Amino acid sequence: MIRWLLLLTLVLAAPLQAAIDIYQFDTTDQQDRFHRLTEELRCPKCQNQSIADSDAQIARDMRDRTASMIREGHSDQEVVDFFVTRYGDFVSYRPPVNERTAILWMGPLGLMLIGVLAIVMLVRRASRSAELEEDDRT
């Protein structure tokens, strides 16, 4: 009985195994660059995953292109520029600071300032209410 359960488990689990892309490089430096670049580039379809972590077809294509560009001798910046040209600044986890990406850089700071301002206003309102209640009691 246990053999049948084990066999059934293996048969049912076989389609769930993900295909692992294996890329061959001439040097370990090329392999390290590939891993670093695939972690640095964002999948345009998944949006919150690097192309190293994504199973989307576009991420596979980007990994393939990254590997071939590294083998051809392109620099890391050339690889990143290639994908930024095709998919925009969003594809990079470290977009440049310019007028198009200013919201990405200034947005969190603006939201934090709005939050601090809201907290200050709430504290002032609460202290005024406490003062008014104390004056009414006397």
Q: What is the name of the CATH architecture of the largest domain?
A: Orthogonal Bundle
Q: Termini separation (Å)?
A: 83 Å
Task: Let me know the number of strands.
Answer: 0
Number of domains: 2
CATH class of the largest domain: Mainly Alpha
Structural class: mainly alpha
Write down the secondary-structure element order. Answer: HHHHH
- Rg, Å, rounded: 26 Å
Named CATH topology of the largest domain: Helicase, Ruva Protein, domain 3
Average pLDDT, all residues: 84
Number of helices: 5
Percentage of residues in helical conformation: 55-70%
Percent of sequence in beta strands: under 5%
The biggest beta sheet reads: none
Uncertain segments are 15-19
Query: What name goes with the CATH superfamily of the largest domain?
Result: Cytochrome C biogenesis protein
Characterize the overall form: elongated
